[in-house]
Specification:
Rossmann fold; two-stranded antiparallel ribbon
Length: 179
């Protein structure tokens, strides 16, 4: 029997956070083991309990200073056991922090500590997505070997139509399986 593949699903504070629930459900349906890491900002949009009930396991907080249930360095243990780190939705903020090597929360520390592939699925307003700094950060990460599922064009949270919508769940799942 093949070894169960382990995914760390990073969830950040985008309006597209509701799609992360479907991504999590689909990953579980495909037989992946999934650990969810939510940023503090994401926890303002969706409660960790929602993701915990879908994952059937603990959801890790954005804080580096929470008391662990078992003695382990959480970011290192999550990074070590991951076959893939998927960040969906990935905000401009998380993309910038990873590009700059900033490790100020659990998710960015997991990304810095992992040897696994990292796949980002951006979701943001079109102006933010096309911003020269954001595009430079994406280009830098691609040069470093990070993978992206490009956002699609669609109706944005601001009401406008443009690039920046989270890729379709099916597209994200296909890329995860490919990697």
């Amino acid at each position: 029997m093949a070894k169960e593949k382990k995914i760390v699903l990073g969830v950040t504070a985008s309006v597209a956070i509701y799609k992360a629930c479907d991504i999590l459900r689909r990953l579980k349906d495909e037989g992946f083991s999934v650990d969810v890491v939510m940023t503090r900002e994401a926890e303002e949009l969706a409660r960790p309990l929602l993701f915990q009930s879908l994952a059937g396991s603990k959801v890790y907080s954005g804080s580096l200073f929470s008391v662990p249930e078992a003695w382990e360095i959480e970011h290192v243990s999550l990074a070590d056991k991951a076959d893939l780190v998927l960040i969906a939705p990935a905000t401009a903020n998380i993309i910038a922090k990873i590009s700059a090597g900033i490790c100020d929360d659990l998710l960015t520390c997991v990304v810095c500590a992992t040897k696994a592939k990292v796949l980002l699925a951006p979701a943001m307003n079109e102006n933010m997505y096309l911003n020269k700094i954001n595009q430079a950060n994406i280009a830098r990460l691609k040069e470093l070997g990070y993978k992206f599922v490009e956002p699609r064009k669609g109706k944005l949270a601001c009401g406008k139509v443009g690039a920046g919508c989270l890729a379709e769940v099916e597209t994200i799942i296909k890329e995860v399986k490919k990697l």
